[in-house]
Design a protein that fits this description.
GO terms for molecular function: metalloendopeptidase activity. This is Peptidase M23. The protein has no helices and seven strands. The chain is mainly beta. The two termini are 20 Å apart.
């Protein structure tokens, strides 16, 4: 069921935000090397193992997708094409 799909970290990194927000529902932001950040929003659920300050390995489950998923990549506040990260 695609509406129940697991969302995984695309790279190793450290969780800098993991919480529900008014506009983006459940959001996880992961900080990676070279000033890179990945942002996962509109998650149906954040995995209970995901906490601010925790280091995650590439492929770690960060949550469950709802009807939609917003995935953004930034490097030093500039947006990067997220398709470069998805393989």
């Amino acid at each position: 069921n695609e509406a129940d799909a697991k969302v995984k970290s695309v790279l190793n990194g450290k969780v800098i935000l993991a919480k529900p927000t008014a506009m983006l529902e459940n959001v996880v932001i992961i900080e990676h090397d070279n000033g890179l950040h990945t942002i996962y929003a509109h998650l149906d659920k954040i995995a209970p193992t995901v906490e601010v300050g925790k280091r995650l390995k590439q492929g770690s489950i960060i949550g469950r997708a709802g009807r939609e998923l917003m995935f953004q990549v930034t490097q030093r506040n500039a947006h990067i094409d997220p398709m470069q990260m998805i393989r």
